[in-house]
Design brief:
2 copies of one chain form a homodimer. By secondary structure, the first copy, chain A, is an alpha/beta fold. The first copy, chain A, has a single domain, classed as HUPs (Rossmann fold). In chain A, 40% of the residues lie in helices and 11% in strands. The first copy, chain A, contains 9 helices and 5 strands, in the order H-E-H-E-H-E-H-H-E-H-H-E-H-H. Chain A has a 5-stranded parallel β-sheet, sandwiched between helices. The longest helix of chain A is centred in the middle third of the chain and has 16 residues. The first copy, chain A, is globular, with a radius of gyration of 17 Å. The termini of chain A are far apart. Chains A and B meet through strand 3, helix 5, helix 6 and helix 7 of A and strand 3, helix 5, helix 6 and helix 7 of B.
Amino acid sequence: MRKDVDLKKKAVVLLSGGLDSSTCLAIASHKKFEIYALSFSYGQRNNPELQSAKQLAKSFNVKKHQIMNIDLSVFGGSALTADIPIPERDLDQAMNSGIPVTYVPGRNLIFLSLATAWAEVLGVANIFIGVNSQDYSGYPDCRVEFIEAFNKTANLATKAGIDGKGFTIHTPLMLLTKAEIIKKGTKLGVDYSKTITCYNPDETGRACGKCDSCLLRKKGFKEAKISDPTIYQK
Amino acid sequence: MRKDVDLKKKAVVLLSGGLDSSTCLAIASHKKFEIYALSFSYGQRNNPELQSAKQLAKSFNVKKHQIMNIDLSVFGGSALTADIPIPERDLDQAMNSGIPVTYVPGRNLIFLSLATAWAEVLGVANIFIGVNSQDYSGYPDCRVEFIEAFNKTANLATKAGIDGKGFTIHTPLMLLTKAEIIKKGTKLGVDYSKTITCYNPDETGRACGKCDSCLLRKKGFKEAKISDPTIYQK
């Protein structure tokens, strides 16, 4: 039988190595969870992300960091996993053009499913994911209603949901602006120079400075009045 | 924009190579869907299953058969993916012992998530899965309530669910007994000698005849009054 005291203290944290997931990791760590970080090599373009994830996992003393291979590029359909150009445009345009080509079909559904499986094996009841619906509402799998539906489904899908108390999906960034996320993470010791947000970094991890994700990140640092430590190309 | 006529005619079918999923494939084929079959190499013991899946996909003329690698054995926690002995017992005992060690945490949640992602990329609205809650009620992710919750979640997770009509998860075997499944499949031309149900087959795919899954399959053929074409060890 699992012990409640254990259930309260451990968490699986989805960690991409980007700004949001790193802040989410810092929050879970600050809340004194013993952390099992889960990252994916999913055929994404920006593999320097995984190097960042490794460094961040280390700096927050996670109990275990599991990197799982899952080749979503066999499905294609996204600028992040297939040979589709990543758009360069201004942020207003990005925020008002509907779901962008950088959307990876089913990504958070898949990642949360795998996090649930691992959590069940570990006997862990808490799952953290750094989704955020405020500053960028284009992705359907970053919304409150998706997370709530997933949480119910995960509890119906698993032995832990039937035998025990089931899982709680934590989304501490859901309602924060990018500037608020950056302020919170800075306070909790996240070294953002080690995080990679860019959709199109070079092989050393330097950001392009032009993609939607870079623009949003720049704006976040500006609004937070925190100097932007990101290393840009050129 | 996707066309309704296309949406009605195509389906992603989850195909393990076992008795149930093969029957499910035959049913989708009989309903005149153009079929995109999806199988997983997930670190399971019985890899001859995948050979069966390939043969079955070919014999039902699927449009495409995608085999995806996803190593669930990194999580462990199941007799199918880790070094835990597979139980041998009588069927009454198997049916009344709760969730068995052959349960793979989160398996159908993960497989359906990946099927949803592929369906979204393909512009396909129908997903078939051969789950069955009648003859073997131990697995939480084979129940009607899980499938319904997943279907809602998939529609909230995806662009297809927001822009379009979303997905329909078909579970044509959900309420059938094993004998009824076998009768239906036989009528639709499934060659059950090519399907592998056993949890512990030898390297040539011959069944052990002793695991829960073999016992249930034997009982099914007996009750269906159809001669069992399964090739057993010794």
